[in-house]
Amino acid sequence: MIHVGIVGSGFIGPAHVEALRRLGFVEVVALCDASLEQAQEKARQLNIPHAYGDVDALLAHPGLQVVHNCTPNFLHAQVNRQILNAGKHVFSEKPLCLTPEEARELEQLAQKAGVVHGVSFVYRQFAMVQQAASMMRDGSAGRLFSAYGGYHQDWMLLETDFNWRVDAQQGGVSRAVADIGSHWCDTIQFVTGRRIVEVIADLAIVWPTRKANVTAEATFSEHRLDAQYQDIPVTTEDAGSILFRFDDGSKGCFSVSQVSAGRKNRLHFDINASASSLSWDQENPQQLWIGKRSQANQWLSDDPSLLNRDVAGQAHFPGGHSEGWPDAFKNMMLNFYQAVEAGKMPEARERRFASFSEGANVMYIIDAIVKSHQQRRWVSVEQ
Description:
Blueprint: E1 2-7, H1 13-23, E2 26-32, H2 36-46, E3 50-52, H3 55-59, E4 66-69, H4 76-85, E5 89-92, H5 100-113, E6 117-119, H6 127-137, E7 144-152, H7 168-171, H8 176-192, E8 196-204, E9 209-213, E10 229-233, E11 239-246, E12 251-257, E13 266-273, E14 277-281, E15 287-291, E16 298-301, H9 325-342, H10 356-375, E17 379-380
Parallel strand pairs: 1-2, 1-4, 2-3, 4-5, 5-6, 7-12
Antiparallel strand pairs: 7-13, 8-11, 8-17, 9-10, 11-12, 13-14, 14-15, 15-16
């Protein structure tokens, strides 16, 4: 069994624990949180045998091989740095960090440490996203022309919607772009095999002041009727529109929004290529639309027998059996831990999970988008 520690037990930490337990050859042996008491309580709830209130203490746990960083954004760089310096394999929630400078440092530390390193970009792990990527790789979709899409949610729709992500000190100078636009950028680059190299952006804050509950609420939680609020100025974007250029000269655009009523978690893309178009929507994740000019369009389902051979293993049940976000999360963990078992990072062309290098690349895109909005011009992405 591979022994794993988790740092952070908020919304995403338990999702990591659940996915790891589904693998069968990985055991979560320790949990670390902001205080020992908090860690002990969460470890009891999740049936994890050991609890720590300090990251260094967790890293010293006997036999620990891998650590997952599930902390709030402002702690990502610091905790990732500690894990790498301890020589442990590391899997980080996104974003990798908050600044391009931290991204460069962590990418170099990961390569120097010689450990397996991954970033939690889960949407590339859906079977139908893998199928679209396979069709782009093998040329059956043709030459890339353009890509469009977006990522829309509604959990920040109300003036009283507030959590730590709104605070630039904790979540970073970008919110919607960094939080969900990062997922879209990673997904579209994975599917097309191209890199976004230039952007022009227009971002928006729809609530310049939000009413924060003085008793902090968890992400996606319901509001209490007896809540007390205080006004907090907002400097991070609720929504935005971005034009971009790929490294092969093809172009596209996408939008992000956390204030789109009724859109719970809609990441979607349309890829236009010379032989066909490919369209996928995370709120209908088991189908890939394939558009044709001179023959009938096609809806392809995630029946393993219908998928390209190199991705059929990413769909785990017969056609017609529901698979969704938790299954994609499990795919991500399986792909990462196969590399841990091998003891080294796979070659880029064979790797299905996002590395620290790809996590750093997305940080450079976010930085360029923020600069473009501030400067009102096209900005090149650091390469």
